[in-house]
Amino acid sequence: MTHGATLADVMNRSRYLLFDFDGPICSIFAGLPAPTIAAHLRELVIDRGIELSAGAATSRDPFDVLRFAATISPELTRDVNDELRAMELRAAEVAEATPHAREVIEAAHQTGRGIAAVSNNSCQAVTHYLTAHGLAPYFTAIDLPQQLLRLLGARWDQGKRRFTPRRARPRCGGC
């Protein structure tokens, strides 16, 4: 924000809203905690006779176990990633909605803003949660941050120093 600009000023000029999925929309791991998933992924690795690094062995973050797997082999990475994605889908089924998130999303939609969910969680888990809670129709894009602008259908207009839309069709990349 520029000096003196209020949140209302910024919102009035905004055409797109990007919501991080875990936190602003819901608590994805509220019903199936991340440490439980991390422990499950560690068992998968250990069952293959692979010794975990000290960090992966004690981390409560399933993404740390995935990062460790990536240091071992492409096959282990794929298997841990597949299991993490399956666990995220289960977590999405029991995730807790963030208070007032629905109202903010609906208000943004009603005022014509493009809305995207960005997340390090799988696109499938995000889509599952949004669909189950009746929020999916409000979203223009659901994906990882590096693909977001392409999926939003926006491009950076250097001359105008802003994003300009290319299309208004909702998309989910990689799902």
Uncertain stretches: 146-172
Biggest sheet strand line-up: 1-4-5-8
Cα(first) to Cα(last) distance is 34 Å
Topology order in helix (H) and strand (E) letters: HEEHHHHEHEHEHEEE
Nearest-angstrom radius of gyration? Answer: 19 Å
Spell out the key features of this protein:
175 residues, alpha/beta, 15% strand, two-stranded antiparallel sheet
Structure overview:
- The structure is a single chain.
- The protein has 175 residues and is of the alpha/beta class.
- The chain has eight helices and eight strands; from the N terminus they run αββααααβαβαβαβββ.
- Residues 146-172 have low confidence and may be disordered.
- It has a four-stranded parallel beta sheet. A two-stranded antiparallel sheet has the order 2-3. Strands 6-7 form a two-stranded antiparallel ribbon.
- The protein has helices at residues 7-13, 34-46, 54-58, 62-70, 74-93, 101-110, 123-132, 148-152, and strands at 16-20, 26-27, 96-97, 114-118, 141-143, 154-157, 162-165, 171-172.
- The protein is elongated, with a radius of gyration of 19 Å.
- α2 runs parallel beside α4 (62-70) and α2 (34-46) runs antiparallel to α5 (74-93).
- Helix content is 45%, strand content 15%.
